[in-house]
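HUMAN:
Just now I want nothing more than another pair of eyes on a protein record. I would be glad if you read both lines and explained how they fit together. I have put the entry right below:
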Amino acid sequence: MNAWEQVEALRFPGREFDPAAGVARFHYALGDLVLTETVDFGPASVEPHPALDRVLDLLYVAASTSYYKIAAPRRVELGELALAEGAMPWVRALFHEGLGEFAYQNKLEYVLELPVALAVQAESPAFVHAPSGAPLAAVGGGKDSIVTMEALQLAGLDPVLFAVNPNAIIRSVMAVSPQPVRTVRRTLDPRMRELNEAGALNGHIPVTAINSLIAVATSLMHGLGPVVMSNESSASVPNLSWLGRDINHQWSKGLPAERHLRDALLAHAGLRDAYFSLLRGLSELHIAGLFAKHTTYDDVVTSCNAAFKQRDASDRWCGHCPKCRFVFLALAPFTGRDRLVHIFGTDVFTDMSQLEGYRELMGLTAHKPFECVGEIEESLVALRLLTEHPDWRDSPIVRALAAQVPALPSDAEVEAAFKGDAPNVVPARYLDALAALGAPR
């Protein structure tokens, strides 16, 4: 038995927040080891809303998943952290569903039913607040957040752009927009790398839940309106089933997670409609078509995770990962070859070494890759459109895939991909803003 197997529980010994500096510190205990995360919001520009402290409670829980996975103990003990009972469904889902991929990859079945003990129950907030200022729009550097930025700007909603730990790529995307920017610095305990090298467990966590709560706290510190994310309908679709449970790489981007977090914000912090995804009703293909209408971001956009690990924004696409393959596939029906090759720096459809990766996206192999990519059905619709596109129909990858898929989607299935009516919780005035962008085709 190694040292990590002897850790019985993740505990929450306490947190601090310095309102003058805008710095929060969250402490987590695994046995005798206490680790501390720091989130530097910077000074508030207005008197922070009374709900801020309660939002930091929820952030304390969300950020704990980074530390839980070090040892993956069999219990989570919240200790003196008082939460409203109405927030607990989100807390349990955060571990059971948000760490589903981590559990699957490490074969830790018990994580799917992990006990989370609430020792102190907080009273419900005395008042309910619906943020009504300028929206805070999260920017990730890819096509999705760019569509959200453009929709909000076009509607005259004057969004404030937001990012956690923005790198050069995200900064270059935000710089194209005339809108103001807010950023936050999240710093993991510096011993994390050393612990991983010493044999601590590692894997995927629900990072969108963490960044979403950082954004909500930021909004309250600056008198802003709702946090607007750019998560699409396909984020809710799982990658596979394991032990009778859906395992979804994008769980914290999906609609069930969005609803859980909105419920927790209302139950524990008294915040109504403080957080939603503008693009929830749309497919990845629909979003790609909307992005294609805007050429302004062609020289800065990227969705490649390999590129995000670099220090500069010079190489924005690796051209060989699932994200690169899918985004190239999704944009191709709406762009000419010259434009898309300019964006990517290469024509992915001429590289036959990519075929097996594309077979995976088409559902011809095991399961959808553990990446932020669209549904298998969307990939098939894109392929159907490419077989009819003069710039792409004779490309080696397109021809090979068209010969291998059992059947291309029907006209009705193609039309369904662009209806834009998937379940969502977007307020009416924001839906109107999105509609103003028009149809993609």
